[in-house]
Amino acid sequence: MRISVCTVLTAIILIAGGLQASAAGYDKEALLELDRMQKNYEGVKDYTANFIKQERVDGVLLPREYIFLKFKKPGKVYMKWLKGPNEGREALYVAGTNGNNLVGHDGGLAGLVSLNMDPNGSLAMKGNRHPITDVGIGRMIDIVMGEVQKAEKAGEGRITTSSDTVFGKPARKVLVEAPANKPKGYYARKSELFIESASGLPVQINVYGWGGELLESYGYRNLKINTGLSDGEFKSDNPDYRF
To answer: Using CA atoms, how far apart are residues 191 and 242, in angstroms rounded to an integer?
Structure first.
C-alpha cells in the first residue's frame, strides 16, 4: 500500500509539535508534488521511452547510453541500445519467467549468441550500478520516496521544489537533500527529480554523492504511457528482436 508523504509528514508534526519538520526545511509544495507523482504513476500500465542512462561505476563516470525502452507492469522490461559502444545490444526480462533470468546479447557479431543471465550476477552487472530489475520509473519513485521518508522520520535534510524544464517542456524540479554530515544510511547526498508538468510523472533524475560527484543520471525522453503493449512485446521469439 502506498504511503502518502503528506501522511508521514502529518504524523511527524503531531509527534514533534512541528519542530522537526520546520528544522528540516521541507517545502510543503514539494511534498504535495511528490504525492501527486505517486498517484499519477498508479494509473500507468505500460510505457515506452528513449532511456538515457549515465552511471559512475568503480569510480569512473561512464559515457551516456541511449536505449529504447518498453516497460509493462508488473516487471516486464525490454531494452535495445540505439547508439554508442553498445549499439545493437538487447536485453529482456520478465519477472517470474525464464527462471527469473534476463536474456540478452551484445551488438555486432557478438549478437549472434544470446545468454540467460542472473540479473544480479557479475556478467549482467558488468558496467552497471543497478540490475535490470531496477529499470523504470516505478523503481525511481521507490528510491526517492525511501530517501524522503527516511529524512522525514529523522526530521533532517531538505526537500524543496522550483519551476524548471525537462527535455524542453515545463516541469517541476524536486530537490531531495540528505544531511551533509550523515552519509551513512542515505542512498545519496542529493537527488534532482524532474517531474514533467503534462504527465505529472518523473522523467529525469540526477543523483550526486557527498563529494558533489554525479553518481547516476536517468532520463525518459519521448515518454508515451498506456500505449497498450502486448505480452508479445516481451517474448524472446518476437520476430522484431534478435534473441
So the answer is: 36
Q: Which of 198, 136, 145 is nearest to 167 (CA)?
A: 198
Cell of 171: 516541469
Q: Does residue 157 contact residue 193 with C-beta atoms inside 8 Å?
A: no
The full set of domain ranges for the chain reads: 5-15+25-43+136-220, 46-50+57-134+227-234
Handedness of CA 116, 122, 123, 129 (dihedral sign): positive
Q: What single string gives the DSSP state of each residue in 156-178?
A: -SEEEEEEEEETTEEEEEEEEE-
Query: Phi and psi (nearest 5°) for 45?
Result: -100, -40
User: What is the DSSP code string of the chain?
Assistant: -PPPHHHHHHHHHHHHTTHHHHHHTB-HHHHHHHHHHHHHHHT--EEEEEEEEEEEETTEEPPPEEEEEEEETTTEEEEEEEESTTTT-EEEEETTSGGG-EEEE-SGGGGG--EEE-TTSHHHHTT-SS-GGG-SHHHHHHHHHHHHHHHHHHT-SEEEEEEEEETTEEEEEEEEE--TT--TT-S-SEEEEEEETTT-SEEEEEEE-TTS-EEEEEEEEEEEE-----GGGG-TT-TTS--
Share of the chain above pLDDT 90, in %: 81
Write out pLDDT tens, residues 52-99.
999 999 999 999 999 999 999 999 999 999 998 899 999 999 999 999
